[in-house]
Amino acid sequence: MSLRVRINLLLTVLTALFTVAMLKIVVDDTRRSIREEMEGANRVTLQLLSTVIRDAQLVSTSDASESVLLNFLRELGRVRAHEIKLFDVEDDLVYVSPPSVYKAGRFAPEWFARLVKPDLPVINLPVHGGNITVRVDSSRSVLDAWDDLKNLLALILAFLVAVNVLVFFLVGRSLRPVQTVLTGLRRMERGELHVRLPELPTPEFAAISHTFNGMADALEQSQAENSRLAMIVRQSGDAIMILDLDGRISFWNPAAERLFGFSAEEIVGHPGRLLVPHSLVGELAEHSAILRARGTIDHVETRRRTKDGRPVDVALAAAPLVDPVTKSVIGEIYTVRDITELKRAREAEIELAQNRQLTQLIQSSLEEERRTIARELHDELGQCITAIRTVGTVVAQKTESTRPDIHQSAKMIVDVAARMYDSVHGIIRQLRPSALDHLGLQDTLEDAVDQWRRLHPEIEFVLDVSGDLHDLGETVNITAYRIVQECLTNVVKHARARRAHVSVSRDGPAGSERLKVVVRDDGRGLTEPEAARATRFGQLGMRERAEALGGTFELHSVEGQGLTVTVLLPLGARAGHPGEARVAS
After folding, report:
1. CB–CB of 131/57 below 8 Å?
2. 55-61: long-range contacts at Cβ-Cβ below 8 A with a sequence spacing of 24 or more?
3. Could you tell me the strand order of the sheet in which 562-570 lies?
4. What pLDDT is recorded for position 460?
5. Can you point out the beta strands (E) in 209-323?
6. Which pLDDT score, from 0 to 100, does residue 584 have?
7. Bridge partners of residue 43, in order along the sequence
8. Helices in 175-241 by DSSP H: which ranges?
9. Is the pLDDT of residue 173 over 50?
10. By the 8 A CB rule, do 521 and 491 touch?
């Protein structure tokens, strides 16, 4: 059965069901309407007859009364919905109302009349000398309802025929694009993936056309993608090979040729164990068992053997080759990458990390030596100079009036001892600032900047400190201090600056706090050759100090506009070395 016939049949059934429902509603409404009409007419007729009977009873004799009623009924004639009969005292029929002339001789079908005719009782009215019977006759109302229903049925039938004809024509016209779609599908079935449907007229078929064309595009792109994937596999930098279930190589791309030295003609069909060192043959069996259980192998670092027997470090990944129809494993796909250079880079990174640890150890040892030397200078040489100065002062006082020549020599000794004491304390501050051990980083920096101001009044030194710097630890404190010391030394010696600004701040959320040190000057900056030399201005030493603590070192310079050094030190490494002693002031 065609779609057109099915649609028409469905439409006919729906229309029939609608018609039946509507007819039921019409019949129920007609029954209710006729009943209300009959009951209303009954009340009017009974009221009229009751009035006439009451007036007739005022006549003195029964014959006169009967004569009045008979004359009235004859003048009244036929009441549309009622049949009126007059009987005398012997129950003989005296009068019956004439038949209705409305649609005379026609009647509704009996089955329809039974559906809508109301069941009303015959009414008996007693009068002088007899009685009057009133019987409801609804045949004319039923006939009117039947005529109306026939007209409605004729209209419904005409509508049904017209709609079926129209729908049959429109559906046939609307389904014409189906042939176009079927033609396109047949061509695509033959492999003509370039076929496309034209723009079809109706929105539904336009959507089908759009979907069909999209599907054709996707299939064409998928075919092109498969071609590209095949090309990528052949041009891939990673060696790709496929082993069948017998462990023999069935595919070998050019990268595998370059890595292992075997051409595809030489290796295809041979066992894959030819590429595995003898000590790792068991590993190949383990990998094959994993793949046949539909597992995968991700980035396993191992070794393979080239054509000339040379071992090569590789990263290996593998997956099972699954038949798309039977879903069974039919082979093993291996991707192999040469990681010789990568392993060398890792070893270099490990060596760099070890070098940084060594650098940190050397710096710690150097700071410890400086601390020891500073302590020895302070405790030994400083006390000796103080003693010489004290003795010279006493001699100068005792010989001031008696021995002027000795007095002058003693004063000279006192002056020389004072200068020596200042020099020793300057050396001690350079070796190890005592304030760093007792007062913390902030006070030490303030003391150092004050000293730079005294020594170089031509330069404006500015220090900004923010955040709590009291619990940074020995290692962070000395690293930050040495970086600021090196930067200010470079400013004085090389920058030709008029202003140097030092900023030290502690910020960041809890658990990832950091110490930020920024030293900025307005000097001449670095020329390109100077910037290219990493060791210029002690850059290498500052960078090593920062990176040894896991921090960063950045240098930004614009020639003629100054230099900015930015160092970030993570405070997770701020704990000092517990074995370090303190230097007395």
Report:
1. no
2. 56/127, 56/128, 57/127, 57/128, 59/128
3. 460-466, 499-507, 514-521, 562-570, 552-558
4. 92
5. 239-244, 249-252, 297-305, 311-322
6. 33
7. none
8. 176-189, 203-235
9. yes
10. yes
pLDDT greater than 50 at residue 582: no
Separation between Cα atoms, residue 503 and residue 519, nearest integer Å: 6
Residues 6+ apart with CB under 8 A from 177: 200, 201, 202, 205, 208, 209
CA–CA distance, 287 with 563 (Å, rounded to integer): 59
504 vs 442: CA distance, rounded Å: 9
User: 133 near 123, Cβ under 8 Å?
Assistant: yes
Token readout for 100 is 């209705």
Predicted pLDDT of residue 375: 65
CA-atom Rg of the chain in angstroms: 60
Residue with token string 């009414």? 123
CA distance 514 to 572: 8
| Residue type, position 189, single letter | E
388 near 413, Cβ under 8 Å?
Answer: yes
Q: Give SS3 for 65.
A: helix
Determine the straight-line distance between the first and last CA of the chain, rounded to whole angstroms.
Answer: 112
Is pTM beyond 0.85 here? no
Residue appearing with tokens 């229309």: 15
SS (H, E, C) 276-296: CCHHHHHHHHHHHHHHHCCCC
Distance between CA 285 and CA 270 in Å, rounded?
A: 16
**Within 278-433, where are the H helices?**
281-292, 340-376, 382-398, 404-431
What's the confidence (pLDDT) of residue 377?
Answer: 67
Query: Any alpha helices (H) in 129-202, and if so which ranges?
Result: 139-174, 176-189
152 and 18 in contact (C-beta within 8 Å)? Answer: no
Tokens encoding 35:
């009943």
Lookup: tokens for 169: 């024509």
CA distances from 83 to 73, 107, 143 (A): 11, 16, 17
Our CA dihedral for 528, 529, 531, 534, rounded to 10 degrees, sits at: 160
Mean pLDDT of 426-444: 69
Q: Residue 303 corresponds to which tokens in the numbers above?
A: 């070794």
